[in-house]
Amino acid sequence: MKKKLISFTLLVTLIFTLTLTGCGGKKGGQNDVTTATNNEENFNEEGLPIVNEPVTIKMASSKKPYVRPFDELKFFQELEEKTNVKIEWDLSPGEGWTEKKNLIFASNDLPDAFYGSWVLSDDEVLRYGLQGLLIPLEDLIEKHAPNVKKMFEDYPEYKKMLTAPDGHIYSLPRLDESSPLTNDVLMINKTWLDKVGKPIPTTTDEFYEVLKAFKEHKDLNGNGMDDEIPFTFRGSHHISGIYSLMGSFGILDNSKKIAVVSDKIEFIAIKPEYKEAVKYFHKLFTEELADEEAFTQDGSVYSAKVSRTKPEEQIIGALTGWGLVQTFGDRNENYVVIPPLKGPKGHQMWNKRDGTFSKCSFVITSACKNPEIAMRWANEHYESDIAYQEYYGLFDVAIKKNDEGKIEFIQPPEGKNLSNLRHEQSPGQNGMHFLTKDMVQNIKYSEKDIEKKECDEIYEPYVVDTNYPQIYMTIEENEELATIKTDVINYVKEMTAKWMMNGGIDEEWDTYIKKLKQMKMDKMITIYQNAYDRYISSK
């Protein structure tokens, strides 16, 4: 009788243990990534479908407003037909995504995976990876993701960027090497130049003289009103701002105020060159040559000013932006793109575009019972034809292959544009696409893209890459930066706008530097430098 009681107790314990194991690790315990599916015979190590009988994976993502619900997109429906993997989507609008993902992790009610461009921040990937809520992917990649594995072999620098300080890879990336070389260009109204008898400016002094001529010559657009604005931009916006224009003074600006120069981290906003640039733009504001709303206007206000196509409606002399076609809808004949202006000391530089690589477009959580299925599903996205369709739109809907095998864009019907076709049946900019330089060479671009590439050709000789690489910092480094960076950057922005609009930089410069030091600016620079040194010394 006693033996039977012991056997019964062991049986109950075993059943209880198996029941807990089958719960999918919802409380954050990390699954063994080599564990097989519930039915090993259902899973195919290679080829398609991934599973013989359908398997559902729960996936969370953020959705842009112009993209339809993912379960309605033919891209995912066709992927399901090929793989036999059905995705149960938990979608949130972009503006509510930060709050939503915080709630997901706080509740430990995890999906099997997160999907989409920039779906988690670097800090979140590292934090939740170290907590065991996200699983390491390197073994899964080795066994089940040949496309990802080849990508790492072809682009070892990206594998290096994806490797966290603990040596693990927790996320799969997004790459868009079709992205232009530059964010911004400087455009000027050629019709107005002709009216005031000035050539296209080549230096900062000539640019000032041109803007002055625009101001003094009344009614350049001929509409009978004094509504002309010689020069406009959007504060510190990365496309329509003046970050690159500071290159004329020997320094290139960016939103982080951090630059890498000869492997040394510099804080841009304390350099003498920054001060000289601010003084130049103050001169433009003082003489009413720059838009008084430059630091307050949002995108809609800016677009309303600059995107006017009829000559009598145009009120802007010079402006910054992505390019002519993007700004005006076509190559507006009244405006031309001009090269970087040469500064007082001969400097002529322009920013290199950053952000073509995103470290996190896909992660697998500890709740996933079948991580090998999730990894094989993600691996499909790194196949070229799927990558094209995920980003640019479906074949025969938005794109097609011509007789030479090149990817062409389909002419949109009346009332639609390329963006409409792209997002009609595909996630587009929401996706985890990986477009390499070789793949980009196979694309026959639209007029807007062609014009932007022509802009890149103008600016390429002057482009200097001072961008801080997308590397992981430790949890401790991120926490320290969080308490320092926001206050420092906000103070710099406040003072820069004040000095450009109202002056006073010479009198207040020393006090400004002293306050930045009190805000632990030096500690911030040290954190960036230590993380960078660790990155460049790693294999």
Architecture blueprint of SSEs:
Layout: H1 2-21, E1 55-63, H2 74-83, E2 85-93, H3 97-107, E3 113-115, H4 122-130, H5 138-144, H6 146-154, H7 156-162, E4 172-176, E5 185-189, H8 190-196, H9 204-216, E6 229-232, E7 258-261, E8 264-267, H10 272-286, H11 299-306, E9 316-321, H12 324-328, E10 335-338, E11 350-351, E12 357-364, H13 371-380, H14 384-392, E13 399-401, E14 407-409, H15 418-424, E15 434-435, H16 437-440, E16 443-444, H17 447-459, E17 463-464, H18 475-502, H19 505-518, H20 521-537
Parallel strand pairs: 1-2, 1-3, 4-15, 6-9, 11-17, 14-16
Antiparallel strand pairs: 3-12, 4-12, 5-9, 5-10, 7-8, 13-14
- Total of helices: 20
On the 0 to 100 scale, the average pLDDT is: 90
How far is the N terminus from the C terminus?
A: 64 Å
Reading side by side through the largest sheet, how are the strands ordered? 2-1-3-12-4-15
Overall form: globular
- Radius of gyration over all CA atoms, rounded: 27 Å
Range of strand content: 5-15%
How does this structure look, described?
The chain is α/β, with parallel strands linked by helices and 539 residues long. It is 41% helix and 14% strand. The chain has helices spanning 2-21, 74-83, 97-107, 122-130, 138-144, 146-154, 156-162, 190-196, 204-216, 272-286, 299-306, 324-328, 371-380, 384-392, 418-424, 437-440, 447-459, 475-502, 505-518, 521-537, and strands at 55-63, 85-93, 113-115, 172-176, 185-189, 229-232, 258-261, 264-267, 316-321, 335-338, 350-351, 357-364, 399-401, 407-409, 434-435, 443-444, 463-464. The strands form five sheets. The protein has a six-stranded mixed sheet. A four-stranded mixed sheet has the order 6-9-5-10. Strands 13-14-16 form a three-stranded mixed sheet, with helices on one face. A hairpin with a 2-residue loop joins β7 (258-261) and β8 (264-267). α10 runs parallel beside α18. It is globular and about 80 Å long. It starts with a helix and ends with a helix. The model is unreliable at 1-37 (pLDDT under 50).
